[in-house]
Amino acid sequence: MAHSALLVMDVQRSIVDRFGNGGGYLARLREAVGAARAADLPLVYVVVGFRPGHPEISARNKTFGAAARSGAFTAEDPGNEIHPDVAPRPGDIVVTKRRVSAFAGSDLEMVLRAGEIDTLVLTGIATSGVVLSTLRQAADLDFGLTVLADGCLDADPEVHRVLTEKVFPRQADVLSVAEWASTLPV
């Protein structure tokens, strides 16, 4: 039998502020988190984070160069906090990553393997960032995958649509939060 976990990725205050609430995004994500808790599924929160001074970021890194210049995503940065609408509870796992994929520079794979988790349910900001990169790497690692399309958010709605309707279905089941929640035991 598959052991699943819900991944809530990059839902940090500064990222949510930059992307906005996307037509009730946080309410849908709260629904997914609540459904996972009710079904006793593990929740794994993935955050991007760096040491003071950002020694992990090369000057050649276009994605994270601005974070290094601004001092973002360190323990001292108040925007680094997971958004309180979906904040972890005691017992939830928080994994810190150093790149776009939830696996890059983190101990995520170790945590999943130790927990005998073989199926991932992906949510997060942005669809074209952490969700895409994590999905690709998780597929290569032979995890079963589900993407909650309305549990993901992207700055470009057309990119989100193409990924969730055309690209992701090649490697994952793509469901709405409500569809996924209806499949869980209560």
UniProtKB/TrEMBL annotation:
CDD domains: cysteine_hydrolases (cd00431). Keywords: Hydrolase. Its EC number is 3.-.-.-. SUPFAM superfamilies: Isochorismatase-like hydrolases. InterPro entries: Isochorismatase-like_dom, Isochorismatase-like_hydrls, Isochorismatase-like_sf. Pfam families: Isochorismatase (PF00857). Residues 4-179 form the Isochorismatase-like domain. It comes from the Bacteria. This is Isochorismatase family protein YecD. It comes from Streptomyces chartreusis NRRL 3882.
